[in-house]
Amino acid sequence: MLATAETIDWGLKLFGIPPLWKETQGEGIKVGVLDTGIALEHPDLQPAILEARDFTRSPSAAYDAQGHGTHVSGIIAARRNAHGIVGVAPESKIISAKVLNDEGVGTSQDIVAGIQWAVEKGADILSMSLGSSEPDEEIHQALLLAISKGIFVITAAGNEGPDLDTVGYPAGFPEMVAVGSIDRRKRLSQFSSRGRQVDVVAPGDEITSCYPPRSYATLSGTSMATPFISGVVALALVKHRKMGGKTPLRTQQDLIEHLCRTSADAGPAGFDPLYGCGIVDPNKLIQGVKS
Q1: Which residue among 73, 209, 223, 230 is the active-site one?
Q2: Is 35 considered catalytic here?
Q3: pLDDT of 237-258, one tens digit each?
Q4: What are the distances in angstroms from CA 49 to CA 4, 206, 230, 233?
Q5: Which residues contact 187 (CB under 8 A, 6 or more apart)?
């Protein structure tokens, strides 16, 4: 796909993101994206990149030769520049930790190193559209340390649906925000992993975003739903910082509870292993941040 005029993807339209930009665009929020790197010269992303580093010893260094990390980053922070696409939080900044190599594979040591670096660089949010069927305690401990420092961690539930009990890791750890995917009819995506660990669902089906080197692509997965939530949390954090006082967004547990309290119930009544607490409601989430 070649985008010649600024495009607002269906998820942003359906969930009322553009009107929220009058109040918050994610300004000042740093999102650590742990993925396959980022297209460093992409016109929609270049102004958003605060830091970029490779932990995989890739011949392409921090550049994204695979595409996944660029797509994820665009969903969060693609700029409003009258060209291409727009991200959920178009004034947020990206700290890109390349922890998956050019084939999209990463080791636990590289992921832990990327987490630690993103924390050192001042990330407010860690967005992790990656996963494994097996838990890794080193990654778990690195994320718990990040959470203890007041950083919010958003993770992809996985694409192993429609069977139950298919949530991968790190999303499967109870402390994480685990994100599932819905389509434009607000129905759970067939591929979206199910399980009691799912907290919330967001648009992840046929999402158009940035792609290397300076292009655009339409992809599907909980990998796409996760940065949507990361972007919404960036918008909410701006509101939190503007208003100050005691708000619901001081800790990871606050965020999980706030997401559950403001989401729209879907599927079986109440919490369920398909939609978790429900479908994210960005307006309620952001307007619910009160001093």
Answers
A1: 223
A2: yes
A3: 998 888 765 566 889 999 999 9
A4: 22, 25, 16, 18
A5: none
DSSP assignment of 129-153: ---BSS--HHHHHHHHHHHHTT-EE
Strand intervals (E) in 55-114: 93-98
Does residue 258 have an active-site annotation? no
Considering its fold, how many domains does the chain have in total? 1
5 found inside a domain:
no
State the Cα–Cα distance between residues 250 and 246, nearest whole angstrom.
8
Active-site entry in 42, 68, 240, 258: 68
The one catalytic residue among 9, 35, 124, 281? 35
CA contacts within 13 A on the Cβ side of 285: 31
User: pLDDT tens digits for 51-66?
Assistant: 999 999 999 999 999 9
Active site residue 68: yes
Q: Are 262 and 116 in contact (CB under 8 A)?
A: no
Angle at the Cα of 228 (from 101 to 109), degrees rounded to 5? 30
**Domain holding 189: CATH number?**
3.40.50.200
Please give the structure tokens belonging to residue 263. 């989401």
Beta-bridge partner residues of 128: 155
Q: What are phi and psi of 54, to 5 degrees?
A: -100, 135
The DSSP output letter for 162 is: T
Domain ranges, residue 281: 10-287
Decide: helix, strand or coil at residue 56. coil
pTM (2 decimals)? Answer: 0.96
The tokens for 226 are 């996760």
